[in-house]
Amino acid sequence: MQHFVLEQALNYLIDQGDADLSALNGKTLYFALEDLPLDVNFVCTNDRIFVTTDTSAGADVDIKLKSSVFLALFQGEDLTELLRQDKIIIHGDVKTAQLLVDLLQQIDIDFEEVLSKYTGDIIAHQVGKLAKNFKASDNPLEAIKNELTTLFVAPSESGLFKNKGS
Q1: Backbone angles phi, psi at 55, to 5 degrees
Q2: Do 52 and 40 meet the contact criterion of CB atoms below 8 Å apart?
């Protein structure tokens, strides 16, 4: 199920961000997160990305990294520098990996605007504020975990409700 959600999300971002996927057409990328149970192939064809859990087929490039490093790539971190620091393990065609990173970095979506269609402006703005705080964090996943824990354990202490009048 998670691969279907990932596929839908990636293609939505590509469509909304008007990203050009043509350079990756015909490529298969094996992608694994070391700290989360994600182990998939991205099959790029017809300007779409299909996500499969059948990783037995050969890929043009194998990419393994931690989720925080993946988020860092979205934030514009340099692939070469992350490779130099051994934060990403790549086997195969490095150019294909660079094409994927370039694609992810050219996606520029106003998430607050998209979210506001489903939640309303106020909630979308609050989520956007939290996302900016997480993005600025050294460890975004840890920040998300901490904020969710605070929200569930002590909602009044959460960033969503701080400084709100009664």
Answers
A1: -100, 15
A2: yes
Burial of 72 (0-12, 13-18, 19+ CB in 10 A): buried
Rank 74-83, 140-149, 155-164 by mean pLDDT and report only the highest. Answer: 74-83
CB count in 10 Å sphere of residue 148 = 11
Q: Write the pLDDT tens digit of every residue in 23-53.
A: 899 999 999 988 888 899 999 999 899 999 8
Q: Is residue 163 part of a domain?
A: no
Q: Are residues 120 and 142 in the same domain?
A: yes
Structure tokens at 143: 């920040």
Over its C-alpha atoms, the chain yields an Rg (Å, rounded) of 18
Name the one residue in this structure whose structure tokens are 């703005």.
Answer: 125
Co-location of 13 and 48 in the same domain? yes
Give pTM, 2 decimals: 0.63
Confidence of residue 16 (pLDDT cuts 50, 70, 90): confident
Cα–Cα distance, 4 to 37 (Å, whole number): 14
Query: 14, 21 in Cβ contact below 8 A?
Result: yes
